[in-house]
Amino acid sequence: MKRETNSHISLFGVPIPSAQLMDKLAHKFHSKTYTYGGRPFGVGILVGFFDGELPHLYELNPAGELFEYNVAQTHPGLLARPSRAVRQDLLREPPRRAAQS
Questions:
Q1: Number of helical (H) and strand (E) elements in the chain, helices listed first
Q2: The domain that contains 35 carries what CATH number?
Q3: Alpha helix (H) ranges present in the chain?
Q4: Is residue 61 assigned to a domain?
Q5: What pTM did the predictor assign?
Q6: What's the helix, strand, coil split of the chain in %, to 5?
């Protein structure tokens, strides 16, 4: 992957897009499944990229199938606070509403 990224930077002057790099890696994984004499990779990988705007999460299984997942943050300050404060916040009971008549 390092060779691919360096080659792309030297040719185009910009880093390789994550989707293009993962597509090349998926092709390499898939080619091992149908060529004679080569054994397929026996491990899948989970790869995360951040391109400056959005995070990207890819899963690549041993057969060469590539899946891209949408990444989202579920709680706005979850990573900025210590784990004890987050745990206390999540375990706290919601406020009870007054009965309406």
A1: 3, 3
A2: 3.60.20.10
A3: 2-12, 18-34, 83-91
A4: yes
A5: 0.61
A6: 35, 15, 50
Token pair 């390499």 in the structure block, residue = 28
Q: Which two three-digit tokens encode residue 19?
A: 């989707």
CA atoms within 13 A on the CB side of 38: 10
**For the segment 56-91, what is each residue's pLDDT rounded down to a tens digit?**
889 998 888 899 988 666 666 555 555 566 566 666
Q: Degrees (nearest 5) of the Cα angle 10, 11, 13?
A: 65
Token representation of residue 47: 């790869």
Residue type, 101: S
* Inter-residue contact 17 to 51 (CB < 8 Å): yes
Give the residue from 80, 59, 79, 81 showing the smallest Cα distance to 70: 59
What does the radius of gyration of the chain's CA atoms come to, in whole angstroms? 22
Q: Determine the structural domain holding residue 46 and report its residue range.
A: 2-91
Q: Quick one: pLDDT at residue 11?
A: 92
